Amino acid sequence: MKSTYNRLLLLALFLTFDLIMFGAFVRITDAGLGCPDWPGCYGQATPLGAMDSIRAEAAERPDGPVTVFKAWVEMLHRYIAAGLGLIVIALAVAATRARRRDPGAQRQPGVPLAWFTLAWIIVQGAFGALTVTLKLQPAIVTAHLLGGMTLFGLLVAQWCRTEGPVVTQDASRLRRLAWLALAVLFVQIALGGWVSTNYATLACQSFPTCQGQWWPPMDFARGFELWRPLGISADGRALPFQALTAIHVVHRLWAGLAFLVIGWLAVRAFRTEALRQTGWLLGALLVLQALTGLTNVFLDWPLVAAVAHTGGAAGLLAAVLVVAFASAAPSSAHPAHARPGRTPQSDTPPTRQTASTVRA
Question: Mind listing the pLDDT tens digit for each residue in 50-75?
Answer without folding.
Answer: 999 999 999 999 888 999 999 999 99
